[in-house]
Write a structure and sequence with these properties.
With 294 residues, this protein is an alpha/beta fold. It folds into two domains: 120 residues, Rossmann fold; 119 residues, Rossmann fold. It contains ten helices and ten strands. It has a ten-stranded mixed beta sheet, with helices on both faces. Helix 5 links the parallel strand 4 and strand 5. The longest helix is centred in the first third of the chain and has 35 residues.
């Protein structure tokens, strides 16, 4: 890792910067979280050289160009140039991100370049992460609103930290929604919203989608008791029936929800293969950021 600044022992907000159209919004949401919870902010850019080194190997060994040394040397030089360009791009991206969060009020952001894959880097850093912030899709899928980032699902499944998925320009959250289903992750969301300074003073919509209305009301009652006197919240609860992802997205739009909090990938892989993942459906259809908990 190339990072000339000292590491913090305090858990930090980690924002992933890749140059996609969502990068500025990722910086803005990360800065907002940092200020609300009074934690350090690290800006991370990963540089993966793996596919570059594979090119020369393929040409020399797999398709019979081993004897054409001048061609291989030229390819090697091009790869080195590409690697240098990636390093320079990363430096510029981090500087722009640093300038943006400083302008937003962050006094001492940490900038970090890591060589290797994003997923591997995040797993190595997990113990120091308090909240992870990244875009719903990276540069490869810019402007493809019907897709989520190729690595996003793996990141969410691999880490057990709160992950804010950014999908739109920054708007300071005033109204949040907890998608509550009584699961362990949903209970964790209730506990977090009740205690974390991130949510202090906000309007909280506690929403349960359950076709068993009596069961939904019971779940809402239990969760409401934990939130009523906590964190200076203004609490609104709602029981809905229908398809969870569609109902939650409609509620979000109708009530101008700025941020949704929910558990992620709580069902088995087999069930998700048969019925489709609720988490993926929400990532695809919601128009506002999602804070996911495992």
């Amino acid at each position: 890792m190339n990072n000339n600044q000292p590491e913090h022992t305090q858990k930090l907000v980690l924002a992933c910067i890749d140059g996609s159209i969502l990068t500025e919004a990722v910086c803005d949401y990360a800065a907002w979280i940092t200020q609300r919870i009074d934690a350090p902010l690290k800006l991370l850019h990963t540089i993966n050289h793996h596919h570059e080194t594979a090119v020369t190997t393929d040409l020399s060994g797999n398709i019979g160009l081993g004897s054409q040394e001048s061609l291989l040397e030229e390819i090697s030089e091009l790869e080195q140039q590409q690697s240098k360009l990636k390093l320079q791009k990363g430096k510029l991206l981090l500087q722009a991100a640093k300038d943006r969060v400083i302008k937003a009020g962050i006094s001492n952001p940490i900038c970090s370049k890591r060589h290797g894959g994003l997923i591997e880097s995040l797993i190595e850093l997990e113990d120091n992460i308090r909240v992870l912030v990244l875009g719903v899709r990276g540069q490869v899928h810019d402007n493809q609103n019907n897709k989520i980032g190729a690595k996003l699902e793996v990141v969410i499944r691999s880490l057990h930290r709160p992950i804010l998925i950014v999908n739109s320009s920054f708007k300071e959250p005033q109204r949040i929604m907890i998608a509550y289903d009584g699961s362990e992750a949903a209970d964790k969301a209730i506990e977090m919203v009740a205690k974390s300074p991130l949510y202090k003073g906000l309007t909280c919509h506690l929403v349960c989608v359950n076709n068993n209305v009596a069961n939904a009301e019971n779940l809402l009652q239990q969760a409401s008791e934990k939130l009523k006197t906590a964190n200076e919240l203004t609490l609104i609860s709602a029981s809905l029936t229908g398809k969870a992802d569609l109902e939650l997205c409609a509620y979000q739009e109708k009530h101008a929800i700025d941020l949704t909090i929910m558990g992620a990938f709580s069902h088995t892989r087999l069930r998700e293969m048969l019925l489709g993942s609720f988490t993926v459906k929400m990532l695809l259809h919601t128009k506002k950021p999602l804070l996911l908990l495992r």
